[in-house]
Amino acid sequence: xxxxxxxxxxxxxxxxxxxxxxxxxxxxxxxxxxxxxxxxxxxxxxxxxxxxxxxxxxxxxxxxxxxxxxxxxxxxxxxxxxxxxxxxxxxxxxxxxxxxxxxxxxxxxxxxxxxxxxxxxxxxxxxxxxxxxxxxxxxxxxxxxxxxxxxxxxxxxxxxxxxxxxxxxxxxxxxxxxxxxxxxxxxxxxxxxxxxxxxxxxxxxxxxxxxxxxxxxxxxxxxxxxxxxxxxxxxxxxxxxxxxxxxxx
Length: 249
Description:
Blueprint (H helix, E strand, L loop, with lengths): L10 H9 L1 H4 L17 H7 L3 H9 L14 H8 L2 H9 L14 H8 L2 H9 L14 H7 L3 H9 L14 H8 L2 H9 L14 H7 L3 H7 L3 H21 L2
Helix pairs in contact: 3-4, 3-5, 5-6, 5-7, 7-8, 7-9, 9-10, 9-11, 10-12, 11-12, 11-13, 12-14, 12-15, 13-14
């Protein structure tokens, strides 16, 4: 039995239930949201099950890769959630809308970053996914990666040019989220990419406030550093690695 506490407003949470239908269908609560895909198209089912042969056949017969199922999720949302990269590639090459939104405004890139699947994140970005698109709560894929502790996905997004100063509906920036999560690695990378340390959210709290509130000394110390300080340290660390590698030959 699965118990849910409080009211879940996150669109991605519901999408997760949708995509996990076959796993959690023993739960009467979950089945309120998921009913084993009985009303979804064969293309969406094939993508969910990673059945490439059936998917190709359906698409070759003129099937619509952009058909929406429960909660307006598409086959590409399913593939992104499950990490089915070959399936996602087939859908994209067949005209799937890479920026399609589900009922909560989440795109496949939101889903992939939430799952922490860097291969899928890279595929979607390389295929033209909008990197700073916001869901209904104002969260970008970068926000979602940080909130779900998907550090590698956050790093991929930043390297691809994700905006470090975007704000959610509640005024949270990626830096505020990373500080609240105590993710010093992402905090450092955000500052290196130009994150504004002075921004505050609708509660009047900034990144430094959360670091102090959570007694996170490492994050507090990192927040005192400038962008140039961090870039200089990164360059020095990279040089040290190269020297060590050469000496090991």
